[in-house]
Design a protein that fits this description.
With 143 residues, the protein is α+β, with helices and mostly antiparallel strands. It contains five helices and six strands. A six-stranded mixed beta sheet has the order 2-1-6-5-4-3. A hairpin with a 5-residue loop joins strand 4 and strand 5.
Length: 143
């Protein structure tokens, strides 16, 4: 099985991914970046995922495309597009957001993972007063 296939399989539901699973797809020196945090090293990524699973009932990724990239200056191996569906434990609230991921691969696994998504859509719009305010601003900008 190709590494990208393993990656897509593991990301079906992150709450079911173990530290061992992460070590099968990421290198020890992985750099993992998303709009919330920046992690360096496999141990830091494993800790980040452990925190996520503490608060999430489910965190599923529907990966629409995993496009391989040939010879490029940034050494990008794959570009992925996805929809994430996050179900929180405390409230059973379901949050859905779309995003993309850049992956860089070497012989040891993926050594770079960067996620791009709308943090406002994922977090800020779900905070009662702040969500109302962001909605109002968006409606004003569309008119």
């Amino acid at each position: 099985m190709l590494l990208i296939e393993k990656f897509c399989l593991k990301y079906r539901d992150l709450t079911k991914v173990s530290s061992e699973d992460l070590s099968q797809i990421y290198s020890d020196d992985v750099e993992f970046v998303d709009p919330i945090e920046h992690h360096k090293g496999l141990a830091a990524v494993q800790t980040y995922f452990a925190k996520l699973t503490k608060h999430a009932k489910a965190c599923k990724f529907d990966i629409h495309h995993a496009v391989p990239c040939k010879d490029n200056a940034d050494n990008i191996s794959y570009v992925l597009t996805w929809t994430m569906t996050l179900t929180l434990k405390k409230t059973d609230r379901i949050i859905t957001t779309q995003g993309s991921t850049l992956l860089k691969q070497n012989d040891n696994g993926f050594y770079y993972h960067r996620d791009y998504y709308d943090l406002g859509e994922m977090v800020y719009e779900h905070i009662p007063v702040l969500g109302w305010l962001i909605g109002k601003i968006k409606r004003k900008l569309r008119s």
